[in-house]
Inverse folding.
């Protein structure tokens, strides 16, 4: 399958699957949980296609509204989502699906375009800018003042909307009473698409190239009026070389700390419900938020990817039930019973998705009253000569020369369907346990502890945790990466002294998994994961002191009876939320998404999209790596015919990155804008 971005994945999934998922909503009124609480009776609602939120500086933000019938007489709570993804012709179908989960049950829904995108005035220059967040605080106040609003506002969303919900909650606008953040991050440097374990990620560029198209997209003349071309030109002129900016900030500096709520969880004063999917790297934030926040909070992680819980197929949740319970409790003062239930619920998979795809993932829902779970025990394996054992080995040293291409079986950050890891394992340093005598389940954050050295001053260590079945196949459970120059601090990295050993910890992505009786626990260590991460400047040889190195897994004792899972489950046909990129034999790959056309019948607009990516490297030559991508989106309705495309190419020397990024715009067949910039960026211990 072709690769798609996190933004495009959300749009595609909503468009393809939402209609199927919505069809079961009428059944929800008879479903009960949480002390017998029932969903309110459904009622009609009206849709306002476009209204304007006036800001203090004169800017107006476009908003689409769904208002329950009778709200003018008896005001209702309002929940909003805040995105740069064009409410009118971008994620329209997904917004409709969200509204159908809220408005019929007495909760108004508002979808606001971020300044400089879609139907809003102004320009956008970065992710989660101060202007965006301050605008958001004003939006909360505006929504609270409307005559159909009871003054209590909630904020929700996935990905961008989940992230800015956390950031705006940290600004504590008085009317914001609760949030629901899905697929989000609390640390913009470590948790998002830009840097993984302090190493430069391909997703930094893949996502940024899509984002530039969002930044430069044209206003809709039907909403904006005759000035639309002038405003479009302003957006094009203001579109920043965003890839250069992100690649310049190679450590956890003030740029990334701004908006990272993990810097001070105490700034968030309202209740938080955080949701993720195990096939989404953003799920790892669920545990850190539950542990770090002090406000009333809940968490849930299900067997899906970077998508809302009501959309996955073949298993989805009747999410209206859970979300309406949350909002009625915190925004309307109803006793729904939701806060009497366990703090954290998670799906415990019995296999990896790669083993069973495209079938559903077998497993069960488990619950923890609080998180971190007090019953979790460390399941410790000590490294020996190719072994993982319960007792420390005699010691010794294992070395690994990082001149191999490892990572082709884990080609993407998101979304991704990793294949059998055996071919990558053969190019790695592997350590295996004995065959397990019973099933064992883990839930939490695996951790590798190494005493390690490098023969060069800049190097990484990548560790994949797999389950090896009796048939010899190796399936990815989780993984962790550490740029070893960041061993003490992501804010203040320091070069390695060649030959000197350091004690380091490599945290893995949060995971739930059942290791089966007869299987083997494996870790596979390499210096790289390509094309997930950019290679180190030089080929590094790593040495691991085995006697001082271990793997710690979060072992979960299985209780005899699990807490009842109260959220109705729906099984529906539909498109899978997983995708996989077929790469080359180890040195190159090319992925194309052919031109697609979608007609949005409600507004008569056709949206066209096309993308291509390519990656290449010569084994043993880290600075032969090349990453390229180009994305295009076009909009057409009658005489309105516009297109924007963005592209990048990245290469390197041992001391510098060479980055070219390009932006083009067309009106009809005429190219009206073109900008190309090549930047030479010093490598900062990367």
């Amino acid at each position: 399958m072709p690769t798609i971005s996190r933004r495009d994945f959300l749009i595609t999934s909503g468009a393809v699957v939402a209609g199927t998922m919505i069809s079961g909503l009428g059944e929800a009124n008879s479903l009960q949980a949480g002390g017998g609480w029932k969903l309110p009776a459904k009622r009609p609602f009206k849709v306002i296609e476009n209204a304007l939120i006036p800001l203090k500086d004169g800017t107006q933000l476009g908003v689409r509204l769904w208002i329950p019938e009778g709200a003018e007489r008896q005001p209702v709570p309002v929940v909003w989502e805040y995105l740069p993804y064009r409410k009118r012709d971008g994620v329209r179908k997904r917004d409709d699906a969200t509204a159908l989960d809220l408005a019929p049950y007495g909760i108004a829904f508002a979808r606001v375009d971020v300044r400089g995108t879609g139907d809003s005035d102004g320009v956008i220059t970065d992710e989660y800018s101060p202007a965006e967040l301050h605008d958001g605080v004003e939006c909360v106040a505006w929504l609270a003042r409307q005559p159909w609003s009871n003054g209590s506002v909630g904020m929700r969303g996935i990905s961008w909307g989940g992230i800015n919900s956390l950031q705006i909650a940290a600004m504590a606008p008085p009317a914001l009473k609760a949030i629901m953040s899905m697929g989000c991050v609390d640390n913009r440097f470590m948790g998002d698409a830009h840097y993984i374990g302090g190493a430069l990620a391909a997703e930094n560029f893949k996502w940024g190239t899509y984002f530039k198209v969002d930044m430069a997209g044209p206003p809709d003349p039907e909403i904006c009026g005759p000035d639309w071309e002038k405003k479009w030109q302003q957006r094009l002129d203001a579109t920043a070389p965003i890839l250069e900016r992100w690649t310049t900030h190679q450590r956890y500096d003030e740029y990334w700390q701004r908006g990272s709520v993990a810097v001070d969880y105490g700034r968030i004063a309202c209740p938080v419900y955080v949701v993720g999917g195990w096939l989404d790297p953003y799920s790892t934030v669920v545990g850190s938020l539950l542990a770090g926040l002090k406000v009333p909070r809940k968490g849930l992680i299900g067997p899906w990817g970077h998508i809302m819980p009501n959309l996955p197929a073949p298993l989805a949740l009747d999410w209206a039930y859970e979300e309406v319970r949350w909002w009625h409790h915190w925004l309307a003062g109803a006793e729904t019973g939701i806060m009497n239930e366990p703090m954290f619920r998670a799906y415990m998979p019995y296999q990896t998705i790669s083993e069973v795809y495209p079938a559903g993932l077998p497993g069960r829902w488990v619950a923890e009253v609080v998180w971190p779970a007090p019953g979790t025990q460390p399941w410790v394996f000590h490294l020996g000569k190719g072994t993982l054992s319960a007792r420390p080995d005699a010691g010794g040293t294992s070395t690994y020369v990082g001149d191999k291409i490892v990572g082709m079986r884990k080609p993407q950050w998101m979304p991704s369907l990793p294949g059998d890891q055996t071919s990558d394992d053969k190019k790695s340093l592997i350590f295996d346990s004995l065959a397990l005598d019973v099933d064992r389940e883990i839930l939490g954050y695996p951790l590798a502890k190494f005493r390690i050295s490098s023969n060069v001053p800049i190097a990484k260590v990548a560790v994949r945790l797999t389950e090896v079945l009796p048939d010899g196949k190796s399936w990815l459970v989780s993984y962790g990466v550490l740029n070893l120059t960041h061993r003490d601090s992501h804010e203040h990295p320091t070069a390695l002294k060649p030959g000197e050993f350091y004690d380091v910890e490599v945290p893995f992505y949060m995971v739930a998994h059942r290791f089966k009786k007869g299987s083997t626990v494996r870790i596979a260590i390499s210096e790289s994961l390509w094309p997930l991460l950019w290679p180190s400047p030089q080929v590094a040889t790593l040495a691991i002191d085995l006697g001082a190195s271990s793997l710690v897994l979060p072992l979960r004792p299985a209780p005899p009876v699990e807490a009842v899972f109260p959220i109705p489950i729906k099984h529906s046909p539909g498109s899978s939320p997983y995708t996989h990129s077929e790469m080359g034999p180890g040195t190159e790959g090319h992925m194309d998404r052919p031109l697609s056309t979608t007609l949005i019948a409600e507004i008569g607009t056709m949206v066209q999209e096309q993308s291509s990516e390519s990656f290449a490297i010569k084994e043993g030559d880290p600075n032969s790596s090349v990453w390229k991508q180009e994305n295009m989106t076009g909009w057409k309705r009658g005489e309105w015919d516009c297109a924007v495309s963005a592209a990048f190419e990245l290469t390197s020397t041992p001391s510098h990155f060479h980055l070219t990024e390009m932006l083009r715009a067309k009106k009809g067949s005429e190219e009206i804008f073109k900008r190309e910039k090549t930047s030479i960026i010093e490598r900062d211990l990367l």
